[in-house]
Amino acid sequence: MKTSEIKKDYSRKTLYAIIALLFCSANSSAQLTIPSGNTFTTTDNRPLGALYGYDRVLSVYEKNEMNIPSGSKITGVRYFVQTAYKPVNIPAFVNLGNSSTSNLTASFYNQLPSTLINVYGGTIAASSVTAGKWITIPFSTPFTYTGDNLELLVGTNLGDGAGQGTTDKVFRWNAATAKTQVWKNSIAPTFIGNGTILNSRPNIQILYDTPGSAGTLALDYSTTTMLENRSQVIIVNRNGGSTGAVFVDYTTNNGTAIAGTDYNATSGTLSWADGDMQPKSITVTTLPDLIVDDNETFSVTLSNPVGTTINGNSTNTVTINNVLPPMAGTYTVGAGGNYPSLTNDGGIFQALNENVDGVSGPVTINIISDLTGETGKNGLNEIIGDHAVLIQPFGGARSITGNSSGYGSLFKFLGTDNITINGSATGATAGGKLIGGDSSLRELSILGNTSSNESVIGFLSGTNGAKNNTVKNVNIIGSISNTGIGFNGKDNDGNKVENCSVKKVSTGIISRGENVDNQNIGTTITQNDLSATGTDKILRAGIVLYNDMDPIVSYNKVYVESPLSTDVVGLGIGRANAEFDAINSGGISGAMVNNNIIDGAVSTNTDGYSAVGIAISGTYTGLPNTLQNNMINNVRGQAKNPSIVAGIFVVGAVASVTKLYYNTISLSGNRGSQSLQYPGYCIALSGVDPSLEMKNNIMSTTQIATGGGLVKTYAFGTASTTFDNLISDHNVFYSGGVQSGGFRTGSLKLNAGTDHVTLTAWRTLTTKDTNSVGAAPVFVSATDLHLDINNNPLIAAAGTSIPTVTTDIDGEIRKAVNPTIGADEIIVDHLGTDDVRASAKLRIYPNPVKSILNIENDAPIGKVEVFNLVGQKVLNQTVNTNSVQIDLVNLVPGNYLVRVSNRETVKTFKIIKK
Questions:
Q1: How far is it, in rounded angstroms, from Cα 506 to Cα 537?
Q2: Nearest to 88 by CA among 165, 140, 153, 155
Q3: Mean pLDDT, to the nearest integer, of 832-858?
Q4: Among residues 814, 846, 831, 840, which one has the least CA distance to residue 897?
């Protein structure tokens, strides 16, 4: 600075110093705090908490503790926040009044507005509420103080909206006998009646402007805490007057912190114009370092006031807290690792949560030894930047055991995205399409005891949803009453469970979206083994989904058995039980449920709960739900009103659409001896004429219920009596045994609706299933629903081509024309509608045929049999030549199956009789 400028600046400051001497009042002060320095608090969150919806707090402050000159204008008040927890926006008002009252006595609230003047009406923003700071309420209308005591009324008007608990805000109060009166009401601000007198009072600061006074200056706080590599605004206030322009210098000074190394030095001059009382700010910046060191301090100091004085805090001591570098890269967990645990205090989840600078890149967590004693105390919170986290065993197979009772899930992920738990030590992914997955890849085992209904591994939506998370190649063993893997909450999209084994839980895997209008999107659950038996069995449900758009549930193997008072379900896709009158939506749309094996859904409880292999409940929005290539057997339970037994239960929810293709259902055995049991169905459809397309399915039942009385077992049942929205053809229906019912319409409950014993009767009623077959399928065994290739002539080529289904449950290519009905494709020769060769040896022609069918072979033909599509043999001819002509002139036009056999082979063809 030039010498002339220095002299000019000095002269200016001297002039303002003289003005200050002429106009400054001895009574003015910087921060008028009543009282100063106390630490008394209360758990009652008035005056700005609105705990009751509508709160009113009237306090009196005496003139001798304020010492404000008469005629001053009070321009605002401030309240000190001791602690804060999730505050919300609060509508509020402030009334002031000059008063001779020094101690309050109970009075009527509705008498107060006439004695007090409203100076503020607005909303206290939640963002302005910070623990250890003052909330400022600037008045819209300055209040003229007359030199008497001051009555201050604060009212909050949150009403019955989203309110706060008593811990949301805790204000600093002080002990003051009979100086506060409160009213509280949860419904309306009438407050008729006397208020309650308290012997405490909110700690406040009063902002005021005395005419002719320049006021004084002070730093807002005497101490500040900062982190490394941060910026902080430090406030300087002018209070008590606004006459004339005033100035003050500021500068930073070293303590244990060194300028240029730990913080950036700064200095300058703050100025207020005449009439200006707005706070001014100083910004200080701390610098990063890469070492762990002790806290360090520097200070910000005010000096050289011009036109005023400093009356209050002239120095703010700033403490710099150490900050660890952001986390990224690979960390080890276990004996001798970077962290001793995943979820306990001192574990890596806590470190990731509490690292001040967060996470800067992908994180890999290698588990280098078995972990015991995990408590689940610390879940993993959402990571800013959504950096990927991989958790995997390292150096060999590992096990994790723990008990998280009281903390929810053993492993909690709270709104986290891009988490992968891969139990393969080599990072492998199960190949192919193996039903039940590949157990050799599961090298991480988690044995978790949690509170009931909690998940061993739980993903919760948090603020933004838990998205794109994967759990694969993991063995999970629970504690009977809990869940294996769970996704709960809203916006949990793109999550996957793959090649996991889940045992000894109530529910294996569950994903539950918020509601039908906010579904989860794209959940994938594939190649998991949920089929343990004995003491390791699943007790309630294998897989359950609610409110999910476009989920995939495929190649899973499931067994569920329960003696408990609960329904059981193999796959609950929008529904976890089967009841005859169910029509509620499960919020499922666009689901693909394919190539699953349900080896059992068994309720051994005698009180009458439902048992269902697959339950599906769609919704009005999105694409249809499709179930295809599934095998379902051993579905049993002594179901009673309102429960039923069903291989597949389709809920006829309003406007939902369901497609069933190539499924095989077999119900057999004895459900039990309890009386009044409700019917059992291979496929049951509830609702009034819901939309269902049913093609190429096998429905076979011989099940009985020895104590069931009139209870029957049905291949298919529908609660509807109209069938406009039912598309059904090329299915196999078989209902046999002493309690065979055939088909049921009009109701699914006991002793209701109408039975239709034969396929012909069903066709006559509905005009459906023209090409369906009424024959008993022959399976490899009662527990293996693959078809016997030599003993299913009516099924082997009776299906219709469905372009979207090109393979069977085993991945074998389906025939493009005349495929096999059911989940298992039988590869046999077939003919189209022209004279074409079925094989190099055997020819059948013409097709279609009017009368004579020619059959030629290069070896003697043993026998020719012709069946109609309800399973009746209409022609049987023994042959011992290489060619034969079969006269079909007497057969009615339609589709037939021709079986040609000799000592070595059996081949079946579908023909059309004109």
A1: 9
A2: 165
A3: 69
A4: 831
pLDDT of residue 169: 75
Task: Say which range, 524-538, 584-598, 841-855, has the weakest mean pLDDT.
Answer: 841-855
Q: Determine the Cα–Cα distance for residues 725 and 785; give it in Å rounded to an integer.
A: 30
> C-alpha dihedral over 882, 888, 889, 894, to 10 degrees?
-140
Average pLDDT for the chain: 89
**Gap between the Cα atoms of 9 and 11, Å rounded:** 5
pLDDT at 18 over 80: no
Distance CA 881, CA 872 (A): 26
State how beta strands 557-562 and 529-530 pair: parallel
Residue by residue, DSSP assigns 19-73 as HHHHH--TT--SSEEESSS---B-S--TTS--TTSEEEEEEEE-HHHH-PPTTPE
**487 touches 470 (CB < 8 A):** no
Other Cβ atoms closer than 10 A to 821: 31
Neighbouring CB atoms inside 10 A of 905's CB total: 16
Q: What is the pTM of this model?
A: 0.72
- The DSSP secondary-structure symbol of 481 reads S
- Distance, in Å, from the CA atom of 441 to the CA atom of 429, rounded to the nearest integer, reads 8
Residue with tokens 């065994």: 781
pLDDT for res 913: 85
Whole-number Å distance between alpha carbons of 630 and 808: 9
The rounded distance, in Å, linking the Cα atoms of 698 and 866 is 21
Q: Residue 27's pLDDT is what?
A: 34
DSSP at 415: S
Confidence tier at 25 by pLDDT (50, 70, 90): very low
Instruction: Check if the beta carbon of residue 352 is closer than 8 Å to that of residue 327.
Output: yes
The mean-pLDDT minimum among 382-391, 810-819, 851-860 falls in 851-860
Can you give 309-342 as a three-state secondary structure string?
EECCECEEEEEEECCCCCEEEEEEECCCCCECCC
Task: For 218-268, give the DSSP string.
Answer: EES-SEEEEETT-EEEEEEEEEB---S-EEEEEEEEESSS-BTTTEE--EE
Question: CB within 8 A of 18, min separation 6: which ones?
Answer: none
Share of the chain above pLDDT 90, in %: 70
Mean pLDDT of 547-553: 98
Collapsing DSSP states into helix, strand and coil, what is residue 468? coil
Q: What is the pLDDT of residues 625-667, one digit of tens each?
A: 999 999 999 999 999 999 999 999 999 999 999 999 999 999 9
Q: Which of 576, 652, 571 is nearest to 618 (CA)?
A: 652
pLDDT at 293 over 80: no
Q: Which residues, including other chains, have CB under 8 Å from residue 594's CB and lie 6 or more apart?
A: 552, 553, 554, 555, 626, 627, 628, 629, 630
Quote the CA–CA distance of 269 and 423 in Å, as a whole number: 62
Q: Quick one: pLDDT at residue 11?
A: 35
First to last CA, the chain: 113
